[in-house]
Amino acid sequence: MKVIIVGRPNVGKSTLFNRIIKKRLSIVHDMPGVTRDVIESQAQWQGKSFTVMDTGGVIESGDYISQEVRKKVIQHLEKVDLILFVVDAKEGLTAQDQEIAKLLYPYKHKTILVVNKVDNKKSNLNAYDFYTLGFDEVYFVSAQHGKGVAELLDRIVRDIPSEEQISTAGGIKISFVGRPNVGKSSLVNAILGQERVIVSHIPGTTRDAVEIPFTYKGTSFILVDTAGVRRPSKVEYGVEFFSVGRSLKAIELSHVVCLVLDISEGVTRQDKRLAGLIERHYKGCVIVANKYDLVKVPKETVENIIRKELYFLDYAPVVVTSAIKGEGVSSILDEVLEVYSDYTKQHKTSFVNRAIQNILKEKPPPLYRGKEVKVYYSFQKSTAPPTVVVITNYVEGWKENYKRFFIRRLREELKLYKSPVRLELVQKE
Ligand code: GDP
Ligand code: GDP
Q1: Which residue range or ranges hold the EngA-type G domain (predicted)?
Q2: Do 338 and 225 fall within a single domain?
């Protein structure tokens, strides 16, 4: 990811550059027009790294930009992912700012207008002139005092996938989590022992887990085992010794988590805790109600109980099994395939926007401080999990229960019936 800082001389580009890279090395000078070349450096924010470039004195002072400089700048603009167009709130809008804005216009979709030198509320006043330049995203900062820089950095790294996001390259990563004795290893052994499952080679061991690759219906899977699920014999720990630590690791490393319950004991507090972890990590999930041979109620009743107790995992299909009798076991991987298909679905921006308009028409967010909460724009930023960004005028206007309703409806509209959806609200004035 590459970010470039452009703007006329003396607006504070190198001050901002130094803020972003957290160094105070390059010389900040008051004399406009001192020619410098493009400086490049690595920057980090929220554990994500990116390259930041300062065009320094490439654009010289004066109202017009020469053909030569124009070419030089355009070369850089083509290559970068994000452009920070810096202007000076103290000086106000100048003819040269407008010249540069024209130059940036073809790259409007990846340009952020940064109004610098907003040191206090007073200088805020002439800042609004800059909206006439026509850029959608505007940030107000004081590079010198560091004001507003954190928000700008949040925006810069927003689209960089976090390193924690696990790759979908090697296959579908699945794990079995649940309290001790619910039947995890019995289920895993039953699945890996199935004729249609081909365990391809000796398990690989990473620092955190044993990974067992296998193929089912032509699709590559990787079983992530952090708890020694396949151990033939093991020490019995009491429920009080059960730690969520290992389960947490397995959840983090998976795309789809199979949450195993011993349904003869109903849905316990520990089960709910694990379910909560899966939800909070935005993982796909299949709920496996095991030991069905021990209960005497219809499958529908089992499902109803689970739906009621684990209502927040409403996107997770339920499979009723008996590992001992080998019943229902083969449905687990079929459900994993369906969950994963939704989990990795990517929708076009036009489709997402239409879906969101439908929801807003049906039920808009309640007024926030007497004002309408609007959605300006939205798009699906990434998959695994499907993440939808909504640009709104008041992030705080989105209360928890409305968000819950909105996400549920969004899943319906986008036909992501079996996947969680992550909603990212971004504020724009
Ligand atoms: P560049 O030519 O665009 O790289 O601008 P510089 O970073 O060299 O800054 C030009 C001048 O503006 C310097 O005197 C800086 O100290 C000053 N400056 C930069 N940022 C701010 C700011 O946020 N507030 C104020 N008041 N001055 C700033
Ligand atoms: P884990 O600790 O979750 O891996 O559970 P195990 O697979 O080791 O199973 C714990 C105990 O439950 C063992 O005695 C299994 O034989 C038994 N068990 C596993 N699945 C079933 C099932 O579907 N029905 C019944 N009745 N017992 C089961």
Answers
A1: 1-164, 172-344
A2: yes
